[in-house]
Amino acid sequence: MFASRSITRIALRRGCPLRQFSTSRPLAVSYHSYTLPTHTSTPPRNDDVPETSITQPDPLPKVHETRPPPQQPQHPQPPKQQEPAPTQNATPATSASAPKLSETEAQKPKAARPRPKLRPRKAAMKLTPSAVEQLRELLDQPEPKLIKVGVRNRGCSGLAYHLEYVDKPGAFDETVEQDGVKVLIDSKALFSIIGSEMDYVEDKLNQRFVFKNPNINPSEEECGCGESFMV
């Protein structure tokens, strides 16, 4: 124990001269004084808080006091902008009225479109009274047959009338009905016969049906014998 104490004393003695002869200079901190601001730019936190019951509690009423306690003044609040209520009410009204209008329009009967007037079409061929009488005699037989008028390539000018008996009309045959008598026209000959007049001629030599066709010129488009024509 004595040895340790002596060692510590020797060490302390040796350390003191080192501190006295040290080359490093002690650092000195300069002191500067600062002034506190007299006026603060930011307002205190409780500046905008109203004096409500939290900050200042309402005073309790005294005994035998009938008057109500004084109310603390409240800061006026800015008026709220009211939403346009009429527009909201108007939109449902219009939407509700729209189905009603559609229902009433659906219940109303639609105006019927005016139908085009059908004009009577002119007959493709006319019959003279004598031709009607002769055709009626042919139809009054025990086995009545229809007469079909057609055109065939024959004669000097190229076309000649052709008559034949048929039991029923064809798919595209034109039917001419006059005074209760029917005559058929071949669909291939309709262009050449349309507008003609059918007549029945009887003389001492023969009896036959003749046609007066306005589509041909007798001096140019009909042969001299009168058996053929050209359209």
Descriptors:
231 residues; alpha/beta; Hypothetical Protein Aq_1857, Chain: A; four-stranded mixed sheet; 4 helices; 7 strands; 18% strand
Report what the structure shows.
This protein is α/β, with parallel strands linked by helices. It has a domain of 88 residues: Hypothetical Protein Aq_1857, Chain: A (Sandwich), CATH 2.60.300.12. It is built from four helices and seven strands, in the order ααβαββββαββ. A four-stranded mixed beta sheet has the order 3-2-5-4. It has a three-stranded mixed beta sheet with strand order 1-6-7. It is rod-shaped and about 185 Å long. The mean pLDDT is 69.
Low-confidence stretches: none
Distance between the termini: 164 Å
Q: What proportion of the residues is helical, as a percent range?
A: 10-25%
Compute the number of helices: 4
Computed structural class: alpha/beta
Mean pLDDT: 69
Largest sheet: 4 strands, mixed
| Strand percentage | 15-25%
CATH architecture of the domain at 125-212: Sandwich
Major sheet: arrangement of strands = 3-2-5-4
* CATH-assigned homologous superfamily of the domain at 125-212: HesB-like domain
Would you list the SSEs in sequence order as H and E? HHEHEEEEHEE
What does the secondary structure layout of this molecule look like, with pairings?
Blueprint lengths: L1 H19 L64 H23 L17 E3 L1 H11 L6 E8 L5 E8 L7 E5 L2 E5 L4 H4 L2 E7 L4 E6 L19
Parallel strand pairs: 1-6, 2-5
Antiparallel strand pairs: 2-3, 4-5, 6-7
Pfam families: Fe-S_biosyn
GO molecular function, one term: 2 iron, 2 sulfur cluster binding
Protein name: Iron-sulfur assembly protein 1
